Amino acid sequence: MRRSAGCARWIWNQAISEQRRRYAAGEKYAGYAEMCKWLTTWRNAPETIWLSEAPIPPQQQALKRLHEAYQRFFAKAGGYPSFKRHGEEPGLRFPAAAHFQIDQPNQRIKVMKLGWLRIKQSQGINGTPKNLSLSKEGARWFASIQVELPDVLPAAGLEPSLAIDVGLTVFAATSAGVKIKPLLALKRQARYVRRAQKSVSRKVKGSANRKKAICKLGDLHRRIARQREDWLHKLTTELADRHPVIAIEDLRIKNMSASAKGTKDAPGKNIRQKAGLNRSILDAAWGEFGRQLQYKLQWRGGQLVLVEPAYSSQTCAACDHVAAENRKSQALFKCVACGHAENADINAAQVLLQRAKEQWAAGHAAQAGESSPATACGEVVRRRPARKRSDAASVKQESTEVLTRTISLMSTQQESRSL
């Protein structure tokens, strides 16, 4: 499997070199079909005949991913594709069910040109297998099988029944009054990470001991990531089983966790403090929490609603009064207008639920033809998500009419399972 993955990496790098040569010669970009012709030549050439010993589907998939990377570059949605070093193999993907065979009773998979491979199944394989992906993490290989399942009818006419406000001190506060403590997977094992990092820095570069220390550091980070992922899976499964429609904040996590270093002309301030905050935000894994919640609700025929979080921490859930003075502290919310007192995170979750219900009602009224197209600041609010954030319609300034963006999760026929 390592040799097959290395062949895919070589093909990736060779295709980039050929594309650069063509560009320097003034020739046009060669698409996926043309690159597949290169692959046939390389597999038949005497000096690279070793490529034919590896299965061809992963090599074709490497070229397909490279073509997609170039398309993103041309559309200015990504950087120029780079060469892959040793250890950065793209993995092995078999896009057709004819490329592999599954023997569940004996827990093994027969893969094209690789033979029978022993596996340890994390769960049973239900449905019709469609494709297989083999990926390497450290010293372990993982198999991910995509299967086809019967359609799941989406829930109709159900308004959001739960809203979740995420944070750092309290990972998730629900509109039902439940507070969930964060896992803090990285923070709990920070001393072990520092110890492993020091061990790497003390080793001579290029030595075998340094490579071993790097492997130990990588295994530790992978262990922390698996702990975080397992905890999130259990939490999101419980939430998806109890509530068909859930609303969460539409956070721009990439912007929130951006570096504060600035530039040479305009250096940033409080860089170390911001770096610690960024580390805590990424350790909380809000994005992964929303991703898991989204597809698990989809599997059950439910929906996930993304709500604009602006001023939700300063808005009173009882009277809709907005003021910075309402947030007395990090944990206490007390409205200066009506005197409503509540935990700040729970109050914010209740505000998100109200906004989600308003958006839900407005959406059903628009579908029934009971209202004209809504406008905000002179612009027509789009009913489909804009391609870019900058293209989106303006957000209305009134806090009681904050616009929300809803993800309509349609029923799917395919489901990814990791073994």
UniProtKB/TrEMBL annotation:
<feature type="domain" description="Cas12f1-like TNB">
    <location>
        <begin position="286"/>
        <end position="350"/>
    </location>
</feature>
<feature type="region of interest" description="Disordered">
    <location>
        <begin position="364"/>
        <end position="399"/>
    </location>
</feature>
<dbReference type="Pfam" id="PF12323">
    <property type="entry name" value="HTH_OrfB_IS605"/>
</dbReference>
<dbReference type="InterPro" id="IPR010095">
    <property type="entry name" value="Cas12f1-like_TNB"/>
</dbReference>
<dbReference type="GO" id="GO:0032196">
    <property type="term" value="P:transposition"/>
</dbReference>
<keyword id="KW-0479">Metal-binding</keyword>
<keyword id="KW-0815">Transposition</keyword>
<dbReference type="InterPro" id="IPR021027">
    <property type="entry name" value="Transposase_put_HTH"/>
</dbReference>
<keyword id="KW-0862">Zinc</keyword>
<keyword id="KW-0233">DNA recombination</keyword>
<dbReference type="Pfam" id="PF01385">
    <property type="entry name" value="OrfB_IS605"/>
</dbReference>
<dbReference type="GO" id="GO:0006310">
    <property type="term" value="P:DNA recombination"/>
</dbReference>
<feature type="domain" description="Probable transposase IS891/IS1136/IS1341">
    <location>
        <begin position="144"/>
        <end position="258"/>
    </location>
</feature>
<dbReference type="GO" id="GO:0003677">
    <property type="term" value="F:DNA binding"/>
</dbReference>
<feature type="domain" description="Transposase putative helix-turn-helix">
    <location>
        <begin position="1"/>
        <end position="28"/>
    </location>
</feature>
<dbReference type="Pfam" id="PF07282">
    <property type="entry name" value="Cas12f1-like_TNB"/>
</dbReference>
<keyword id="KW-0238">DNA-binding</keyword>
<comment type="similarity">
    <text>In the C-terminal section; belongs to the transposase 35 family.</text>
</comment>
<dbReference type="InterPro" id="IPR001959">
    <property type="entry name" value="Transposase"/>
</dbReference>
<dbReference type="GO" id="GO:0046872">
    <property type="term" value="F:metal ion binding"/>
</dbReference>
<protein>
    <submittedName>
        <fullName>Transposase</fullName>
    </submittedName>
</protein>
